[in-house]
Design goal:
Blueprint (H helix, E strand, L loop, with lengths): L2 H12 L3 H6 L4 E2 L10 E2 L20 H5 L4 H24 L35 H16 L11 E5 L13 E2 L3 H8 L1 H8 L5 E4 L3 E2 L2 E2 L4 H11 L5 E3 L7 H4 L7 H10 L13 H6 L5 H17 L21 H14 L1 E5 L13 E5 L7 H4 L12 H9 L4 E5 L19 H9 L3 E7 L29 H9 L5 E6 L7 H5 L3 E6 L7 H9 L13 E2 L17 H4 L4 E3 L10 E8 L3 E3 L4 E9 L5 E11 L10 E10 L4 E8 L6 E2 L5 E3 L2 E8 L5 H7 L4 E8 L3 E2 L3
Helix pairs in contact: 1-12, 4-5, 4-13, 5-7, 15-19
């Protein structure tokens, strides 16, 4: 907000009747012609591109963007998305089209923590780490909203506030019970950063209760924490029809009018749904005041003013032309993100990259080999061109190499054809494998089976995964094709961790690449990686486990034994892990001071050398751990990132400065403090854990820093 726009909003609101004010709190806000306020539909989506409104540049899914670890790249992507959104809005509004998905208020990003790999919506997030999620969420918001707070390019929304990550089947009735430590240490951190560091315009409440209070009507979350502690000045929107859950499923109210009043009184300004149609009744019953309604409407009008929707306050973005939609420059950015997101998990004997001149034939097999759905995930728009892995490989090799294709099996069903027999495509797959020099096996999921309740669900439960194995006959296909004896490359197209233990151990499985949902043209990026046009650079934003045996119950929101910060058992591929083609060497690791006061900064530095023939990006990661941490505290935590471009043979010095907040811990009461004592700092291209060292063949350097003085409180 600014003083100018705030006063304008107050002036307009003061001229409204109570009925008119209440009408503006619905996501379908009607026009008030006498005040020059046009109709507006607040509901729009832009998780990884402008969604649900025709053609737009489709970036990789959010979890894939997270694998870049690069906040500058995500800000660049956000800027592309808001440019295209503006171009669309300018044309739609000129034509009087103000319907759903046509506005400038984007209900993105999703900054929930991917705490459990079974959660179906985890691919909408930036992974399991609060620090990484906060950095990338802020970057994407800055790209969406632009640099001028008084003239927003678009309005972003951090969701789903708070403590929200499944189970999807229970989300309308579930009560997430969470300690003060976990609340502040894990679940709220990214939201705080989005408010304080990125000035996010909106926050969307979650469906579930948190410690008994419905998130969209929680005084604790919305007033005490979001407004008072975090200083949030924007507007709060409910998740869609979530307020109806107050009386229908949570049973904290009796009727819709009570639910609407509870939401407004505790700080929810905008209703996605129909609960606020009952606000007049709530007012008649004395459950809500006109003052509370007025306050909400003033916030809502303020953002519309800063978006340039009222004639007296035009937008500098009104002239963005329609030809910016899916223009070559934007496609180039999406391809850069796609390339940087691919994670090389295994490369036995440096099998990759392939050499086209040495191949006569390739078999491309699997349910995701030629699937458009596996390119984009959910909350997607429409691309003018899709390039699947099969198409990417075909285009890359041209007529020089024979490319065989077989679906192999369905994504999760035991047959492809409705009248077919079980495993009806396996013989075709075997025939193609036997005829080929190398097999590219494309396995995984898509948003039809990992996604949002109501949008997904078949073999899995309401979009959540039942386990971490490949669904349907995919594991059987993998084992059968591998047994042929040809070298196999596994491409995983999925938005979450899959247990690939069997493939990791098999000699004939030469390479595994996690492709995520790589974007509309992601098949081109995949082909370029396979044939060595660039070196892979992605790092895992989530932990890949060997099964679920050590995972707590899905409904348990305690962070104990969850994510790399609290658990390192049965890890297949660790958080922060990813291979290159070639070798990156670290040296001259040092800290600026080995003994320093608790309030002082510490700079960590190292030299990074690219000892390969490829230009590449190296993700330098700094982790911090207190040596005598209390039982409830996390272990090593990511506290610094630097994405460094290196030409072949190039050496660079990288320095990352850690503040007092990077050494802080969250008490059991939720306070943020720094204690004196010994800390271990690691700098390298991976976590300082045994499994990362085992997979990469080298360990990261760890240095001790002693903090002296008295315990201090620092800003959360």
């Amino acid at each position: 907000m600014s003083a100018k726009t705030r006063e304008y909003a107050k002036k307009l609101t003061a001229q409204m009747t109570l009925e008119e004010k209440m009408s503006q709190m619905l996501y379908e806000s009607p026009a008030i012609d006498r005040l020059g306020i046009p109709a507006y539909n607040w509901w729009n989506e832009a998780l990884h591109g402008v969604a649900r409104t025709g053609v737009a540049t489709m970036f990789p899914q959010a979890i894939a963007m997270a694998a870049t670890f690069d906040e500058k790249l995500l800000e660049k992507a956000g800027d592309v998305v808001s440019t295209e959104g503006r171009a669309k809005f300018n044309q739609f509004s000129k034509r009087g089209d103000r319907g759903i998905y046509k506005g400038l208020t984007y209900w993105a990003p999703n900054v929930n923590i991917f705490r459990d790999p079974r959660w179906g919506r985890g691919h909408e997030t930036y992974g399991e780490d609060p620090y990484l999620t906060g950095k990338l969420g802020c970057a994407y918001i800055k790209g969406l909203q632009g640099p001028d707070k008084e003239h927003l390019k678009a309005a972003a929304c951090a969701k789903h506030y708070a403590v929200h990550s499944g189970p999807e089947a229970l989300r309308h009735e579930f009560n997430a019970e969470v300690s003060r430590h976990d609340l502040y240490d894990t679940y709220l951190y990214a939201f705080k950063r989005c408010v304080k560091d990125a000035g996010v315009e909106a926050v969307m409440g979650a469906y579930n209760r948190v410690n008994g209070e419905p998130a969209c009507g929680s005084r604790t979350l919305l007033k005490d924490i979001l407004r008072e502690e975090f200083g949030f000045e924007g507007h709060v929107v409910s998740d869609c029809w979530a307020i109806n859950d107050f009386h229908l499923h949570h049973h904290v109210t009796g009727i819709a009018a009570e639910s609407a009043a509870m939401a407004v009184n505790n700080g929810c300004d905008l209703n996605c749904g129909n609960a606020f149609l009952h606000l007049p009744k709530a007012y008649e019953m004395g459950l809500v005041t006109e003052e509370a309604v007025t306050e909400a409407v003033e916030r809502l009008l303020d953002v519309r003013i800063r978006l340039g929707m009222l004639e007296e306050y035009p937008s500098p973005y009104d002239d963005i032309p329609f030809d910016k939609v899916e223009c070559p420059e934007h496609i180039a950015v999406s391809m850069e993100v796609s390339r940087r997101s691919l994670v090389l998990l295994k490369n036995a004997g440096d099998f990759l990259p392939l050499q086209k001149e040495k191949l006569h034939s390739i078999a491309v097999i699997g349910p995701n080999a030629n699937s458009r759905a596996a390119l984009v995930g959910n909350y997607e728009g429409t691309s003018s061109q899709y390039i699947t892995p099969l198409e990417g490989i075909q285009q890359y090799v041209g007529e020089d190499v024979k490319v065989y294709y077989a679906q192999g099996c369905g994504l999760y069903k035991d047959k492809v054809e409705a009248l077919g027999e079980r495993n009806d495509r396996i013989q075709e797959a075997l025939a193609t494998a036997e005829q080929s020099d190398v097999v590219v096996l494309c396995l995984g999921l898509d948003a039809s089976i990992e996604g949002e309740e109501g949008d997904a669900g078949n073999a899995y439960a309401s979009g959540d995964k039942l386990g971490l194995g490949l669904p349907g006959l995919q594991e059987e296909l993998l084992e059968t094709i591998t047994a042929v004896g040809k070298p196999v490359i596994v491409l995983l197209l999925a938005g979450s961790a899959i247990d690939l233990s069997w493939a990791e151990q098999q000699e004939n499985v030469k390479a595994i690449v996690d492709c995520w949902y790589p974007g509309a043209r992601g098949g081109r990026s995949i082909a370029q990686l396979l044939f060595g046009e660039f070196s892979p650079a992605g790092k895992l934003p989530v932990t890949f486990y060997q099964g679920t045996e050590n995972l707590p119950e899905f409904t348990d929101y305690s962070m104990a034994h969850r994510t790399y910060r609290y658990e390192n058992k049965n890890v297949l591929y660790p958080f922060g892990y990813g291979l290159h083609y070639g070798k990156v060497v670290y040296g001259e690791e040092k800290v600026s001071a080995k003994v320093t006061d608790v309030g002082q900064k510490v700079t960590v530095s190292a030299t990074v050398t690219n000892e390969s023939d490829y230009p590449l990006w190296e993700t330098v990661q700094v982790y911090v751990k207190r040596q005598d941490a209390l039982e409830y505290e996390p272990g090593f935590q990511l506290k610094g990132i630097s994405c460094v471009p290196l030409t072949a043979g190039e050496k660079k010095k990288v320095a990352i400065t850690l503040t007092d907040r990077d050494f802080a811990y969250i008490t059991e009461e939720g306070e943020c403090k720094v204690r004196p004592g010994d800390y271990v700092i690691s700098i390298g291209g991976q976590q300082p854990d045994e499994r990362s060292a085992e997979l990469t063949g080298h360990k990261t350097a760890c240095m001790k820093v002693t903090k002296t003085g008295e315990e201090i409180s620092v800003e959360y």
